[in-house]
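Dear colleagues,

For the upcoming journal club I promised to circulate an example of a predicted protein-ligand complex. I picked one with uracil because it came up in last month's discussion. The inputs are reproduced below in full, followed by the predicted structure.
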Amino acid sequence: MKNLKNALLLKQLFQLKQLGYQYTDITPFKEDDLDLSLPGTLDLLQKQANQCHLCDLSKTRQKVVFGEGNPSAEIMFVGEAPGASEDSTGKPFVGRSGELLTKMIENVLLVSRNDVYITNIVKCRPPGNREPTPSEAYTCKPYLLKQIELIKPKLIVALGGTAYFYLTGDETSIGKVRGSIFKKEHYTVIPTYHPSYLLRNPSAKKDTFEDLLKVKSLMA
Ligand code: URA
């Protein structure tokens, strides 16, 4: 699977960079030695993610937070990374920001939280809730891309700048880009503020309310 192959290659290049290499002609791995395919069902994909040790976050996590919700959801929400409550329960967005996200889904989109699918850019908690490193995010991205391929959401709501950047590659700040529609080849993204940001900056809630009304208007 090309994405997983690229992720492994990138991980090994980051490791070589950390060791001080600026150039390398090392062949990082022999492709034929590895089974690089990701499973074709969400259940099997989750089983594989639960055993993942591709990056250092696996050393400090308690549980892998794969994602949860409707496997054929029209709307997918993607956050940044699990926090402490998510790490201990294995479920995404169950802490304070999760409570706010649930209210946003149920009060604005008028659907149950179980009707959408919720996941993160990285599936394991970064220690101290720091932002995932590029190496961690790109290493984990094949799981997210496979989730998107299997669920086929009509819209992906990127929660915050980190989720937006890793879904689109666009570095525009979340304050400027929120509420706009970004089309990638296989999916469409609408960015809005992360619930944790809204907890710290309640005056921005009205902007997210508008963004979600737009999401609602695009739902079938
Ligand atoms: N913040 C996130 O980005 N994701 C979670 O699952 C919880 C908090």
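Two points we might discuss: DSSP finds ten helices and six strands in the chain. The domain at 42-219 is CATH 3.40.470.10 (Uracil-DNA Glycosylase, subunit E).

See you all on Thursday,
B. R.
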